[in-house]
Amino acid sequence: MNFRYILRLIRFLTSRMRMVDLITAYRIDNSPYSLDDIIPPAGDHIGTLKGAHLEAEQLVRQSSPEWADWRANYLYVFRDLDWARTYWTLRGPRYLYEVAVDPTDVIHIGDMQIFNHISDAATPEQKAEYVRRYCNREESPDQKKIELIVRCATVVHVLHTPEEQVAAYEEWRRRFVGGGNR
Prior knowledge:
Layout: H1 3-17, E1 23-29, E2 38-39, H2 51-62, H3 65-73, E3 75-78, H4 81-90, E4 95-101, E5 106-111, H5 112-120, H6 124-135, E6 146-150, E7 153-160, H7 162-177
Antiparallel strand pairs: 1-4, 2-7, 3-6, 4-7, 5-6
Helix pairs in contact: 2-3, 2-5, 5-6
């Protein structure tokens, strides 16, 4: 355990004693955790990105040194359970957790739809506008695809396991793509 992790644990436990209202969120993760485990940041995900998604990530990180740090070194969780389940279904075998987040641990609240528009934008000016909107916490009208960048999160409930994800993906394919295993 490193020193920063211990400080976060102390901050989280102190917030519970102060009766702070914790934020309920949802985390997709490769690692198995149990009730009350603290999920630390998973590490930089930029190496998993390609093409337009990689370009969008780079543009946001280039907007300031803080953004480069936040996007690389903190944890991503989702505000909406339905969206988290959909995203979990499509991400490959992983766990889906309900987590609690201390409001003081929230670094940013961002709309993934606006972030995805960075990838789709045709001109550098349009890309820059979507980067600005994402960084300024603007939200789309439906507000379903909201991600929170946080320092850490505490497991409240294990909602789904990697084994369940495989079955959920096959069901999704049958319903929306028109087939199963191919």
